[in-house]
Design goal:
Radius of gyration: 28 Å
Number of helices: 18
Structural class: alpha+beta
Distance between the termini: 55 Å
Largest sheet: 8 strands, mixed
Shape: elongated
């Protein structure tokens, strides 16, 4: 028999127990914040029709994982027939994000939903890109989106940074910065320079690579789109407009908005540029009114987001001191994505936390640590097989009090049972021998500091809860 290669496929991660518990803890935190802002959970299929996934902004074959059935040799004809039909509406693939499937979900359930529709989703997505350090082909995204019919208040855009700030403050990963921009500002700026509409998106995508490739390569990229050296330098100067954090008379974001408004008076054909500034100002004022600390967000004119369906506000979040980790939360506003399916204007705005990638980065940078391998708080040890009924009763008594308990069913030397509890990070061990059973007592040992106390079995649950708190 040939040896089976049971290693994980490249790009498909699996977690050890402590890492998985960390993921669950972060998901619980994210879920609480999402729900505190009124978002409701949904789930969409892992598989969508290929034409749905390619409906807006074709991602290319290097991203989308297509599906094809595996058939034995005696059924190859069926595969051939399926292959002939596996085009258009019959071809299926794994979802590469959750925004496009959300658009299809809304189209399918349009008459069952109330608008604005605010949903959150924490599903696995799949991307057929080259696996490398911290980049996976399967990973979990924690998304929220709000979608309206005909119109959607820009205050929903302002709410997104408040949500981001609350999540990352609660999970305590250090200082972070939410960078905000509006694609209409960039689009309008390039338009005023005389760049043709078909090249503006390319130029914006080039700008979006600035942090990765540097100014020299961005200038070279802009030159390929027909921009003169003077125009290209003007672009670099424009996206480098920053607020002066040392200025006492104005907030940094206000200084950027002031500079943009001055630009607008000097640029020809600046209607879209001015609209982008107005939208950006509305969002920034809303972020401020929501109480987000001023050092948590800024306007960054280089932020564009690569996906073509973003049309307005865009966000990227970076960890201060660990900028090499890249964006830890991103998103933006889109106007036409849902309408692609139903022919109706349905603007939306959303953000996404790539949780699997984020956990990998934070663990590698020692910003977070795995949790204990088990959620167990108390282990009831096994000293005598004939006392097992008491051990089971005590275990259930603790569980009914809301305490997480493991019962040692296999009799081992006491030292080994203590060692097992210690390795798993269990806080307390309960020891009941023959003498303790007669006196309806137990020994409660704190595995953290080695302290031991005698407690009556009736008071054990309250004692453990008090000490856990």
């Amino acid at each position: 028999m040939d040896k089976i290669n049971f290693s994980t496929p490249s790009g498909f991660p699996e977690f050890l127990p402590g890492e998985k518990r960390l993921e669950q803890h972060l998901m619980d935190t994210i879920r609480r914040v999402y729900e505190s802002y009124g978002f409701t959970p949904i789930e969409t299929p892992a598989v969508e029709r290929l034409e749905v996934l390619q409906a807006k902004g074709n991602q290319g074959d290097n991203i989308i994982y297509g599906l094809q059935p595996i058939l034995p040799p005696n059924r190859q004809a069926e595969r051939d027939e399926a292959g002939k039909g596996d085009t258009g509406s019959e071809a299926r693939a794994l979802k590469f994000d959750q925004t496009v499937p959300l658009a299809a979900y809304i189209a399918r359930h349009l008459n069952d939903l109330q608008f604005p529709f605010a949903r959150y989703q924490m599903d696995l997505v799949f991307r057929g890109e080259r696996a490398k350090d911290g980049r996976y082909r399967q990973f979990r995204q924690c998304d929220i989106d709000v979608v309206g019919r005909k119109e959607l208040s820009l205050l929903y855009d302002a709410q997104m940074p408040a949500i981001i700030a609350e999540i990352f403050s609660q999970i305590n990963i250090g200082e972070f910065l939410i960078r905000i921009n509006n694609r209409k500002v960039l689009t309008g700026f390039f338009s005023s320079l005389g760049v043709s509409p078909d090249r503006i998106k390319v130029c914006i995508n080039i700008i979006d690579t600035l942090e990765k490739v540097g100014v020299t390569k961005v200038l070279a990229g802009l030159a390929t789109q027909g921009l003169s050296p003077a125009q290209s330098q003007q672009v670099i100067d424009f996206i480098n407009i920053k607020g002066d954090v040392d200025s006492p008379e104005e907030r940094p974001c206000q200084r950027v908005l002031t500079a943009l408004n001055k630009f607008a008076t000097e640029l020809p054909n600046a209607e879209q540029f001015k609209l982008g500034i107005q939208e950006l100002a509305t969002v920034i004022n809303g972020v401020r009114d929501l109480g987000v600390p001023a050092d948590r967000y800024c306007i960054d004119l280089s932020i564009a987001r690569g996906l073509d369906y973003y049309t307005g506000t865009v966000y990227e979040t970076t960890l201060i001191g660990h900028e090499a980790l890249g964006s830890i939360c991103s998103g933006g506003r889109y106007e036409e994505l849902v309408g692609t399916f139903i022919g109706e204007t349905m603007p939306g705005v959303g953000i996404s936390i790539g949780l699997t990638r984020l956990i990998y980065r934070l663990l590698k940078a020692n910003i977070l640590q795995p949790l204990a391998a088990t959620p167990t708080q108390v282990m009831v040890l096994n000293l005598q097989e004939d006392l097992m009924p008491i051990y089971l009763q005590v275990s259930q008594q603790l569980r009914q009090a809301g305490i997480k308990v493991a019962t040692a069913f296999d009799k081992r030397p006491l030292k080994k049972q203590f060692a097992l509890a210690d390795k798993q990070g269990i806080t307390f061990c309960v020891v009941i021998g023959e003498e303790e059973a007669v006196n309806k007592q137990c020994i409660l040992k704190n595995m953290t500091n080695g302290e031991q106390i005698v407690v009556s079995i009736d008071n054990l649950a309250s004692e453990v809860k008090q000490r856990l708190e």
